[in-house]
Amino acid sequence: MCGIGGYFLTPTGQAPAGFLEEMRHSLHHRGPDGSAIHKTGRAGFVHTRLSIIDIEGGAQPFIHPLSSQKTSGAEAMLVANGEIYNYEALRSETTFEYATRSDCEVALPLWLQGGTDFACSLRGMYALALYNGVDETGCLVRDAFGIKPLYYVATEQGVFFGSEPAALARACAARTAPNLVSAAMVLDRQYDAHLATEQTGIWGQIKKLLPGETLDIEQGRVIARCYDRPLDTSLRQRPATVETLDQLLEDSVYHHQRSDVPFGMFLSGGVDSSALLAMMARLNDTAVTAYSLRFDSHTVADETEKAHLIARKTGAEFIEITYDRDMFWQQAGLAALACDEPAADYAILPTLCLAERASRDVKVVLSGEGGDEFFAGYGRYRASRRLVGAKPLMRPGPALKAGILRQDIATSLRERQHALSIAYAAPSFADKLLRPSSALRQLQRQDSETWLPDNLLVKLDRCLMRCGVEGRTPFIDKITSPYGYHLPASAKIRGRQSKYLLKQWLETYLPEAEPFQRKQGFSVPVGDWIAEKADIIAPLLARQPLIESLVSAADLHQVLASAGHNTAMLSWRLLFMGLWHQIHYCGVPADQPIDAILAPY
Q: Which fold has domain 242-386+446-513?
């Protein structure tokens, strides 16, 4: 797990002065254990390292000399962020003189020998940049589910890339005014949802590789794109049985535990994290360290007692953290700093807190993201499958419903959401009635391509990497995910029960988790905390440049002062976006209280 950056120059292109050094500095938090820069031909790569596998010998960039009659001293080069879990099997299939025991080095010979299709053979999470100095070709690669981030800018000088857009904007001097429709989308939907054909997001000319996307680059120009789409694979579906799921889950957790450093897991007490802990306990002889968080509030559900019970039954070491209003006022800016691609999910607050605590003990944490998307855990899946009265998933959110957006912004936002609703059309009446499994997959597909990579995985990557911790997701995997996705609808939803097969597995192997009990749901009491200080925060937000360009000042106080569910989400998103702009665009330090960050400067 690391930070990567670099460039592929055109024949006459030049990199901005100090580009690689600036990227190294900006991405230090992603790789605090070491860093290196290498230039060869018309490419330059930088790598900041979080040492997980081959601690002593796995430093990057990986450099391999190439013999060529055309170019004397030519080299091939690779930088990688992530983990390739099937690297041992892949290494055994190549005739290559490896310099390290690193899991990621295998990508270099696979690319040199097989071309860009090599990514389809990789099992893991990764963002890769590769370069061949003989013919001045290269590629950028992102894993199939978008677990690891990768951004790029294509200019007349060449293609520039990095793990985080804020770092890329600083190094390229590519900072433009935020895209206001994208910012409004965050207020309305929590993240910047847009079509793949829309090449610009909130950071303007900085673009993001799609999940599974590979960009072919020749002489500093993007010349082709290809995609790794494991959900589209039409392999014979394995049986929808507890025994089959057990085999697949054991295999996935086993591979996701590969590490030369200590690892732990995040435990909420819900189905997904409880299943992970049950399997980790089976596979490990020593106690698993499980981190759980509770809120110092009586207005939200508290499942730490259940999490503690599950930890005790599995023999895990249970570490509980309490998050209170004082921590919120002091640390919300750090959460906005971490999420430079804005994901206004209030779960970033506890996730960042858990990551900081875990970083004192471990470098790797397993987490349950993906269970809901691939095994159909959301209540909205049940609701959207109704034959009559089902609501579309891509419908107006609290910002549009509250009518607080400026008219021109609201109109543009509705146009974008309309385009998204066409691209991700709801299942037809006939599909729901005659092809229920296909109809359910249609709903899951939308989440796996938008909500998961653009919100949940942004949260996990940024919050953990800000603290120098690697997050791993066994439910998001080239074997486990397609299995869940292609299960028949009856194995995923029965009556009011979602994730049916996964709950059956958990009831079999850890009945104390009581998976078929009604779920309490996860919430953060930010609405209450913001409402308590609405008189202070509202006038500061009203003068904040981004917020001022999006909403009417007259509406702000009313939204912030209300602690209702919808207004709580909206008030947090307004606050988050104000903090985000102050920190990433105005240069205000993030390590201070909310009111100090928002104060006029």
A: Rossmann fold (3.40.50)
Estimate the crossing angle of helix 565-584 against helix 553-561, to 10 degrees. 120
The model's pLDDT over 418-430, given as tens digits with 9 standing for 90+, comes to 999 888 888 888 8
- The residues, ordered by sequence, that sit 6+ positions from 574 with a Cβ below 8 Å of its Cβ are 187, 541, 547, 551, 556, 559, 560
Query: The tokens of 453 are what?
Result: 């990579």
Q: Residue ranges per domain, the chain?
A: 2-202+209-228, 242-386+446-513, 526-598
Measured in residues, the chain has a length of 601
pLDDT(565) > 80: no
Q: pLDDT tens digits, residue range 178-223?
A: 999 999 999 999 999 877 766 578 998 899 999 999 999 999 999 9
Amino acid at 88: E
Q: Which of 321, 235, 319 is nearest to 277 (CA)?
A: 319
- The candidate with the shortest Cα–Cα distance to 47, out of 39, 65, 59, 56, is 59
What is the C-alpha separation between 265 and 275, in angstroms, rounded? 11
Quickly count: other Cβ atoms within 10 Å of residue 296's Cβ: 13
First to last CA, the chain: 37
Q: Does domain 2-202+209-228 have CATH number 3.40.50.720?
A: no
Cα separation, 455 vs 211, whole angstroms = 13
Residue carrying structure tokens 């091939």: 76
DSSP structure class, residue 302: -
Determine what percent of the chain is predicted with pLDDT higher than 70.
96
3 state SS of 528: helix
- Asked whether 123 and 85 are in contact (CB, 8 A), the reply is yes
Buried b (16+ CB within 10 A) or exposed e, 211-229: bbbbbbbbbbebeeebebe
Cα dist from 247 to 239, 243, 244, 443, 480, whole Å: 11, 6, 5, 27, 10
